[in-house]
Design a protein that fits this description.
By secondary structure, the protein is of the alpha/beta class. It is 41% helix and 19% strand. Helix 8 packs parallel to helix 9.
Length: 444
């Protein structure tokens, strides 16, 4: 604060003004003499008021410099600095901001930075002085100014993300209704799927889709995953805050199973490069292994084994663990004894089994689910027989789809997102990522 002298000067000013008003109303003979005598304190009071106003303006500028210094040291960027370095940074910010002030001299500036497991707090204190213009005649050569500012921020939450991306044959469907129509109109059996058949070229609808410029859902997932790495990079408050690992269901139906594309690492640029290798699972030939290539049960069991015990996220050595699961939610595997709706010979096409998700969540692993809505394919006889009953059939597809129900039940509370082809998978992935990060900070 400006010194107590100012309070006395202001009081003097108010009293002198009252005296002056009284004298002006008085008409007796000694008024002139008395008024002349009183002119000195009146002039002093007016001058003190000017000095006070100028000092107040200087204080306002110095307070703004203190605020800027405290906020800078508590910012996400500054969290990368040690407490000692952050203190020096705060003082330098204050000095730079105060350097434009020409009518006051800074005395001392101190910054106290305290880091705890809950976050960082910053206290900035300063003293300064300003030479007087008027009250110097009574011995008050300077006015003391002092102030302080406080800021705080939470320590960033460290999180390991394990991306499990569905690249099974059903992800070869056209990404939009227009892409689906293009495939249906250009295949002899009106197939909407770009099946990656490695046998005779005419049966390789994957290559056909490429030649027709059709965007498949797997193409969108690939690009969305790469974009996610950019989002994570820009969101991270400190180096190494987020680590990524990428998995899919295998390169071919012949070796289907959880497959690691990128090992857990804080190098998000390397993760982005690796994500460029995400592609549709191939099959040696049509109907190989009865097209059973989407084994959610075994993949999730294996995924559980890949994820270490979660931490509380307060440090790089104790990160939270998030399974980020992107899929259309329909298993297609050999489940002869447990299938809710078996097709033939033990082949099972059914919504995701939630029990394996529950096992992971019970370990403290959070699961974020991005459900890429399973498109209705009314021209596909197999779809209408085996998938439609639990995707539409007796269910309302926008509300009660059994596929959507199970995918949501797999997710941790608040971490479920459904996206249709026209909504944008990349936008949805980024939104879900940001929600996970924000929730982690609130609950840490």
């Amino acid at each position: 604060m400006i010194g107590s002298v100012l309070h006395a000067v202001r009081t003097l000013g108010r009293n002198a003004a009252a005296v002056a008003a009284h004298l002006l109303r008085d008409r007796r003979g000694n008024v002139a003499l008395m008024f002349g005598i009183s002119a000195i304190p009146i002039t002093l009071a007016v001058g003190a008021s000017v000095d006070y106003t100028l000092a107040s303006k200087a204080k306002a500028k110095l307070d703004a410099a203190a605020d800027a210094a405290a906020l800078a040291a508590a910012s996400h960027t500054a969290l990368k600095l040690s407490a000692t370095d952050a203190q020096a940074f705060a003082i330098s910010v204050f000095n730079q901001a105060a350097s434009t002030l020409t009518d006051a001299s800074v005395g001392t500036v101190t910054a106290t930075v305290t880091d705890t497991t809950q976050g960082r707090s910053v206290d900035v204190n300063y003293t300064a002085s300003r030479p007087t213009k008027f009250v110097g005649i009574v011995g008050i050569k300077t006015m003391a100014i002092n102030g302080k500012s406080y800021a705080a921020s939470g320590i960033p939450t460290y999180i390991d993300f394990y991306l499990l991306l569905d690249n099974t044959p059903s992800m070869g469907v056209g990404a939009t209704p227009s892409d689906v129509s293009t495939m249906v109109n250009n295949t002899p059996d009106q197939c909407a799927f770009a099946c990656h058949d490695m046998s005779a070229a005419p049966n390789d609808y994957y290559s056909l889709a490429k030649s027709l410029g059709v965007t498949m859902r797997i193409d969108v997932v690939r690009q969305a995953t790469q974009n996610l790495m950019d989002t994570a990079t820009s969101t991270a408050a400190v180096s190494g805050q987020f680590r990524m690992a990428i998995y899919d269901f295998g390169t071919s139906v012949s070796n289907a199973g959880l497959t690691k594309i990128f090992s857990l690492s804080s190098s998000l640029s390397s993760a982005k490069t690796a994500a460029g290798n995400i592609d549709l699972m191939s099959t040696p030939y049509q109907n190989y292994n009865s097209d059973q290539g989407t084994d959610f049960d075994n993949a999730l069991v294996s995924m559980n084994g890949e994820i270490a015990t979660p931490g509380d996220g307060t440090s790089a050595s104790s990160p939270q663990k998030i399974l980020f699961f992107v899929s259309d939610g329909v298993a297609d595997a050999y489940y002869p004894s447990s299938c809710s709706q078996p097709t033939n010979g033990g082949r099972c096409q059914e919504p995701l089994t939630v029990a394996n998700c529950t096992t992971m969540k019970n370990r403290g692993i959070k699961i974020a689910v991005l459900y890429t809505t399973y498109l209705a394919l009314p021209t596909n006889a197999w779809y209408m027989t085996w998938i439609d009953p639990f995707n539409q059939g007796p269910y309302n597809p926008s509300v009660n789809s059994k596929i959507a129900q199970n995918m949501q039940a797999c997710a941790s509370p608040g971490f479920y997102f459904e996206v249709s082809p026209t909504q944008g998978i990349s936008t949805a992935m980024n939104a879900l990522f940001q929600k996970v990060v924000a929730t982690a900070r609130l609950t840490k």
